[in-house]
Amino acid sequence: MKLKDVIITEANGDYIAVTADGTFNGMIRMNRTAAFIAEELKEEKTLEQLISAVCKKYDVAEEIAKQNILNVIKQFDSVGLIEK
Amino acid sequence: MNEKLTIEQTLDKYGFIIHKVQGTSMLPLLNEDTDLVRLVPVKGKLKKYDLPLYRSPQGTHYILHRILEVKKNYYLICGDNNTFYEKVPFDRVVAVAEGFYKDGKYVTCDDPEYLKYVEKRCEGSVKNREVYKKPIRISAEQRLLLDMLRHAVLDIPYTSKPENINWKLFFVLAQKQEIAAMLYPYVKNTDCPKELLIRWKQVADMALRKEILFDAERKAIFAEFEKEKIKYLPLKGIIIKEFYPHKGMRQFTDNDILFDTDRRNDLIAIMKARNYEFESGATHDVFTKKPVYEFEFHKMLFVRDNPLYKHFSDVWENATQESETSFAYHMKHEDFYCYTIAHAYKHFSNGGIGARFLADLFLMHRAWKDSLDLDAIQKKLTKAKLIDFYNMAANCAVGVFDGNDVTVSDDMIAQFLFGGMFGSMERNIAKKVAEKGRLGYLRRRIFIPYDQMRSIYPILYKLPILLPFCWLAKVFGVLFTKEKLAYFLTELKLLFRKNIVDDD
């Protein structure tokens, strides 16, 4: 899976995702972990690759990483940011 | 060694100083090209109609205006040619005029002919104020707006719970001044109704989103300019927004960029390849694209017919290249500072400018103050006849943001608060109606002078004979464009309002 053309930036202590072409007419405020997952998803990744990247970065158990990743993906998908 | 003495040192050493006059604020009495003033140290409290020399609020330069009233802690002061008051604390006064050299002749300040002028002028200037200006009443909402703006600009928490505020009106006011996004973090902790807060949050979020999108798009466009070796120089909001404490605070509608006009066709090609709509203009080309993108590429800083043009036509010669290999340029800080003042003046003289400009000026000054060549700025602004406007703006900015309300009067603040769409239009109309009457105003609005028409229709440079057709085209343009027609109808409504001139 992969995110659409999304800009991720840090602003005023938050991480923010917006779409450059306006397909999503709002913005998502994220924490650092979600922003990391979003950055990873700028390129095509499988769920396994994402779990591996998050575990490596944050030194957490696979199950916790997987749960976090699925939550973040669900949020992105709900506003149409995941490329189908 | 011959060291240059300050005014204070000269007064100490010699007991007087003869100084030239700068600006137009003391016309018709003192002319900056020909007249000189003789100043002596101040002994005790000054009196009504004296001409004190005092330090500007930011301490950058000296001002000479007339005392209209002596108050308990300050003098109420006004230039003979000005329409706003200043409150000057006693300790900012460094000297007082004993006399002046006018047309080669020395006139003392107790000369009977001069005193007659003073009486007449001051009485006249009061009348003049009443004619075209509504008496100044700063509303509770306007005061709150300034108070919150000050907290936002200084990045300090706001703990007060304002009462008896019409929040809807406050929101409209903040929107009109383009500071709604900046005030949201402060409003959300007040008693502002929840449904209004939801709308307010949307405005703040949109401002932040727009800035993020603008920044990313500008970066991509500049990368293409670098690749194609096109010189570019960012202007206005792009630079000024960086002075604000947080991202998304300083709302701006478009990206203003000066570019190398020899490469205009290449620039248009780049923008069109990025799917921009293009509209050509006399001084700048406008490029727009959904959802929010707007870029104005300027060929020059001011239209040729604007008296400010000649003072800002050498921008490329004085600009600094970001690096040897880059095609990005920036103005010297002094030039950018003067340009910001000049650009604000353009809006101000057309009716008004918002309080946001005061914030811009204050933050720019604070960011650069240690490295600015203030003498160079003063010289340039004096030459461009902007020094009086600058004095007024700087006075206001320091008064509002430094929290020293002695230096700023409601009258002065109102000049800025009346900025923004509706207020500026009302003010502008009132001013012009006082000068030319209602019909004169309308005539001028329809039969716009040739000099201005040339800027709107550049074809008139080549074929001035087409002027009547261009007038016609302009009228049709207004009648058949929804927004322009709405604007014109509002203008008419204000124009024929009963008390546009002497409303109180």
What does this structure look like?
- The complex is a heterodimer of chains A (84) and B (504).
- Chain A is α+β, with helices and mostly antiparallel strands and 84 residues long.
- Chain A has one domain (6-78).
- Chain A contains three helices and three strands.
- Chain A has a three-stranded antiparallel beta sheet.
- Chain B is of the alpha+beta class and 504 residues long.
- Chain B has three domains: 7-132, Umud Fragment, subunit A (Ribbon), CATH 2.10.109; 140-416, 2-Layer Sandwich (Beta Polymerase, domain 2); 424-495, no CATH class.
- Chain B has 19 helices and 16 strands.
- In chain B, a hairpin with a 7-residue loop joins strand 6 (74-78) and strand 7 (86-89).
- In chain B, helix 3 (140-154) packs across helix 5 (180-187) and helix 5 crosses helix 6.
- Chain B starts with 6 loop residues before the first helix and ends in a 9-residue tail after the last helix.
- The model of chain B is unreliable at 126-135 and 500-504 (pLDDT under 50).
- Chains A and B meet through strand 1 of A and helix 6 of B.
Write the CATH fold name of the largest domain in chain B: Beta Polymerase, domain 2
Q: What is the typical, i.e. mean, pLDDT of chain B?
A: 85
Low-confidence stretches of chain A: none
Overall morphology of chain B? globular
Task: Please give the number of β-strands of chain B.
Answer: 16
> How does the helix and strand content of chain A classify structurally?
alpha+beta
What's the number of helices of chain B?
19
Strand content of chain B: 5-15%
Q: Give the biggest sheet of chain B.
A: 6 strands, antiparallel
Mean pLDDT of chain A: 90
Oligomer: heterodimer
Helices and strands of chain B: which structural class? alpha+beta
Helix segment tally of chain A: 3
Please report the total strand number of chain A as a whole number. Answer: 3
List low-pLDDT spans of chain B.
126-135, 500-504
> Which pair of chains forms the biggest interface, and how many residues does each contribute?
A-B, 12 and 14 residues
